Every structure is written in structure tokens, then in C-alpha cells.
Amino acid sequence: MLLLLSFQTSFSQTKEILGDTTYWYKNNAELHKTLDLKDFEKSTDEFNFRFRNHGQVIEISKDSSNYSGKIINYIFHTKRSNKNEFKILSNKIDLSSKQTKEIYNIIKNSKIIDLPTDEKTENWKQGTDGITYLFEYSDKKKYWLKTYWTPTSQDSISEAVIILDLITDSLNLQETYLSFKNTLPKKGCYNSGGIVNMCYASNSLEFGYSGATKFPFGFYSSYSANYIGKSKINSGVALQYNFDNNGFHHLNLQFSKWKIFFKESNLSDFLAYNYQNRIINFQDSKNKLENHQFKYGLNLKHNIGIGLGLDYLTRGYNKIGGNLYAYKWFSKPNVSTTLTTSIFENQINYKAEIFKSFNINSKLPIHRFDFGITYENFMNYKDLYFNIRVSI
Fold first, then answer.
1. Predicted pLDDT at 280
2. How confident is the model at residue 21, as a pLDDT?
3. Are 384 and 203 in contact (CB under 8 A)?
4. CA atoms within 13 A on the CB side of 118
5. Is residue 169's pLDDT more than 70?
6. CA dihedral sign of residues 184, 188, 189, 192
7. Theoretical Cys-Cys bridge with 295: which of 52, 97, 178, 309, CB 3.0 to 4.6 Å?
8. pLDDT surpassing 80 at residue 130
9. Helix (H, G, I), strand (E, B), or coil: what is residue 50?
């Protein structure tokens, strides 16, 4: 009877809990489950230690002479169209027994287990926009959770020095996390648990109707991409084709690449090649026009773009002229304007475009409609184009 009572007492014994563990487990239950973290409150190991930073967890355990540890990198991934739904992407690096033992010795020698939490540390300043480090420890009898807000801002408080020494010791955590982020798809938005989102400009596919007063039928399609998979390409292609029932047509094909030499948000560059092939009814005769445009330009502050290049006219003309380009985007009305001019000797050609965009904030794959009008005078052939485009 005495033996049974002793067994029941031992079985029902619970650990002493120190720190606000309720808040952590209530608000991070899904993350804890996804990362498959050990439950320190229930663990019977003689030593468990976990260090948590935005996007990284380092977890080590010791029981008798057995050492085990792992580094888990994680990040929250959302689509640009719906930032309320996210996925947790992660990878795990298992540490060797030797590595774990070395970290165990560092932790024991650092005396971090004996430190009070930041709220109970004299002169420890608090804030809202720094980095909060979270530490957990358990043995067979107790479990504690402690947080420390931005040790780098604590004016060399001895406790902060201990924490910083531990964080920067031997694990190359920043390099490890950067390697993990480099494996991620370059699309959507990412957050490591802080207030800052890192979003990639979405690859864009556009298609729609393109018509003109002299070419009532036609279509437009374009695709632009900053990344394909993990490869940065910063390139795009666009095709516009207009035609009628009498065998006349206008083909316009463009290839472009951007951020070649200048890659900042307020200064980037682009290179574009434009090919046009026309069979037109002009002055009661059938005319064939073909030209190749090459231009280099800059995207400047305030949504302004400028460029210049060459325009080569073939099909019997064999003329080379200059090409000028100007672009302006007006953010509030969501309107873009473009003016392109080419000059062959005394012949001035020009094309003026204006587009109005309507953004759609929904879960649908369509996120924008564009309506545009283009007027062109090319070698004295004039036409007015109408465009309706959908962007997905």
C-alpha cells in the first residue's frame, strides 16, 4: 500500500512553471505544432533549452549522456492578394551530438539560466520596434520562459552582454537563416514574425481585346516576371495583333529587360526591342511597313520614365532614325501616359497612349482591369486604338 501511494505521488507530480507560458502557447499553438517543438512542460529530460528569435528556433536537450539538438528556420508566407491566409514554411537542421554538447557547455558557462527576465532586470529599457529574444529552459522539476527586448539597446548592462554573447556564439545563425530564405519561391510576401513584410513584385500576365478604327479585330497579351523559380530575370514580352477582314494587319512584338545596371527603387534602367510589321491600306494602295526599335531608358523618381534609341525602317525604305520615349504614372487616379516619337530625316512619327487602371482587392485571380486609348501617326498613316486588358 505504501509503495502504491509513493508511485501515485510521483506520477502526479508537475513541474514548477515560471514565466508567462500561457500567452506563448495560446498565440503560437499552430506554429508550435507545425515546427514539431518539444513540450518542455511534459519532458522528462534532465536539461532542455530553447532559444527563439524571429524566424529561428534553436532547441537542445540532454538526458544522461545523450545530447540532441536542432536549428529550425521558419517564415510566414502569404499571397499578395490575400494576406490574411498564410503558410508556415520551414526547414530543420539536425545538430550532431558533438555540436549540441558544445552549445550545452556554452549555455551552462554563460549563466543565462540564472538571469531574471528583462522586466525584473534593473535598468532594462522596454520598447515596441526592436527585437525580443525568447528563452525557455526545463529540467525534471521546473520550466521557465524568459523574454529580453533588444539587448543591443541596453547600454552594456551585464545581463544584456551575457545574452548577446550567447546569441552570437558559434552557430552562424544569420548565415543559416539567409541560406534558408534563398531557397524560398520569389513570390508573395514573407514575414519572420515581426512587423516588417518583405514582398516580391508579382509576375504579371495580361491579356485582352485590342481594336482600332481601321483594324476592328485583335488581341493583346503580355507576361512580365522578376523571377522564374529562384532565377532573377527581370524581363517581359508583349504581343499585340490587329487585323480586319481584307487581309490587312498590324503586328507589334516587344521584348524588354529591366534593372540591368541600376537596381534601386528610385533609379532603375531598362532595355527594350520592339518589332512592328504592317500591311495597311494607305492612299488606296497596299503598303508594307516594317521597323525595328531599340531603346535604353531610366525609371526615375515620381513614377517617371525616359528613354532613347534607334528606329530602323526596312521594306524598301532602309532608313535609320532616332527614337524618344517618355512615361508618367499618376498614382491617385491610377492613370499612365506614354509618348513615343521616332524621327526619319524630316518625317516625325509619334504614338500617344493613356491607360486607366482599376485594381480589384479580392480572392479572385484577376487583380486589375486596364482601359486604354492609343493614337498613332506612323509614316503619315494614322489610327486610333482601343484596349481592354485583364491582369492576373
1. 93
2. 62
3. no
4. 22
5. no
6. negative
7. 309
8. no
9. strand
13: burial class by Cβ within 10 Å (0-12, 13-18, 19+)? exposed
Q: For residue 333, what are the contacts with CB-CB under 8 A and spacing of at least 6?
A: 356
Superfamily (CATH H level) for 204-391? monomeric porin ompg (2.40.160.40)
- Residue 45, classed as helix, strand or coil, is coil
User: Which of 112-123 are b and which e, b meaning 16 or more Cβ less than 10 Å from the residue's Cβ?
Assistant: beebebbeebee
pLDDT at residue 61, as a whole number? 93
Residues 258, 261, 264, 270, CA torsion sign: negative
Q: Does residue 50 surpass a pLDDT of 70?
A: yes
| pLDDT (0 to 100) of residue 171 | 67
244: which 3 cell numbers? 480586319
Beta-bridge partners for 94: 70
In one-letter notation, the amino acid at residue 223 is Y
Q: Report the chain's mean pLDDT, rounded to a whole number.
A: 86
Cell of 161: 552582454
Measured CA to CA in angstroms, residue 44 lies from 40, 104, 212, 334, 354 at distances of 8, 17, 77, 61, 70
* Least confident stretch, 153-167, 217-231, 245-259, 278-292: 153-167
Q: Helix axis angle, 158-167 relative to 97-110, nearest 10°? A: 170
Q: What is the CA radius of gyration of the chain?
A: 32
The structural domains of the chain, with segments of one domain joined by +, span: 13-199, 204-391
> With the C-alpha atoms ordered 158, 162, 193, 27, is the resulting torsion angle positive or negative?
negative
Question: What are the C-alpha distances in Å from 387 to residues 205, 354, 378?
Answer: 15, 10, 19
Q: What is the pLDDT of residue 24?
A: 63
Please give the Cα distance from 238 to 274 (Å, whole number): 9
DSSP 303: G
Of 78, 75, 260, the closest CA to residue 179 belongs to 75
Would you call 65 helix, strand, or coil by DSSP? coil
Would you tell me how many other CB atoms lie within 10 Å of the CB of residue 350?
A: 14
| Residue that has been written with the C-alpha cell 525616359 in this structure | 306
Contacts of 372 (CB under 8 A, 6+ apart): 353, 354, 355, 356, 385, 386, 387, 389
The 8-class DSSP code of residue 170 comes to: S
Residue 350 has pLDDT above 80, yes or no: yes
E strand or H helix that includes residue 86: strand 82-95
Report the C-alpha gap between 295 and 324 in whole angstroms: 8
Instruction: Look at residue 3 in the predicted model and tell me its pLDDT.
Output: 37
**Average pLDDT over every residue of 34-41:** 87
At residue 293 the predicted structure's pLDDT band, cuts being 50, 70 and 90, is very high
